[in-house]
Design goal:
The complex is a heterodimer of chains A (166) and B (114).
Chain A (H helix, E strand, L loop, with lengths): L2 E3 L2 E3 L1 H12 L5 H8 L3 H13 L20 E9 L4 H9 L4 E8 L3 E9 L2 H12 L5 E8 L15 H4 L2
Antiparallel strand pairs in A: 1-2, 3-5, 3-6, 4-5
Helix pairs in contact in A: 2-3
Chain B lengths: L18 E6 L2 E7 L2 H8 L4 H10 L1 H9 L3 H13 L3 H21 L7
Antiparallel strand pairs in B: 1-2
Helix pairs in contact in B: 1-5, 2-5, 3-4, 4-5
Chain lengths: 166, 114
Amino acid sequence: MKIKNDALTLDATDLKILKALQEDARQTYANIGKRLGIAHSTVYDRLRKMERHGIIKQYTAVVDGEKAGLKSITALMTIYTDPKESERVAEELSKTPKVLEVYASLSEELLIIAKVVAENQEGLHAFIANSVAPLPGVLRIRTSIVTKKFKETPFSISNDADKLHL
Amino acid sequence: MNTDNIPKSLKTFPREKAFYFFTSIGNYTGVSAASLKEFVEKINEVNVKSLEFHLYRGDFEKWIGETLEDKELAEDIRKLQKISLTGDALRNQLSMTISKRVKRLTGQPYPTQF
């Protein structure tokens, strides 16, 4: 199977490299090549190509904040917006480091859904009252504070592995 | 119009300095007030849960004291916390206290249009 991304077409080998990298981003090109039965230089070339095309956005560490002793709370904000202003609201939220994810959703009304972190409930309230509610186009806000996390995973090539016949 | 003579507590403030009514942490009602006159109007229409939420957190007192810089009214609002009013009794008391203050301020030789 081939996947097109603007000018770049990913083939099965590219997808296998991505999958291997998402399992362990610290493994060497030689190790990936050995697992996939291809030369390490092929792995290198294809990774550079995918980096250039923005398919690989960054190599990062996934930190367990709780185990790292970082005290914070997570909340999900549903922001009801004036449709004319919703994109601007989403853009403004996206600029804020406290806001981790921003989505637009069209149900009965146009909504912006955002995941936000704060040091505590007071910090969360201050942020929403001082930085979100005053944004032009914000009609009202519903916020749910997360009390327990059951699953959280970033997008993975493995999610689509069956479809891709890897 | 020269606005220099208007007491600060009667001025209209920009969005970022307005008061935003919430019913609980992070739950914004969509009601806001950018002046004391607007504030008293909104007190009469907002969900009463919002009044209880803000009064006992000291948010009204803080906004009136720090943004409007009306220490006298802030003190009157602070005293209301001690009476432990809830529901419409709280709404009426808040409305009366603030309306009285607005009348006193506008009764002075200041422009009433703001």
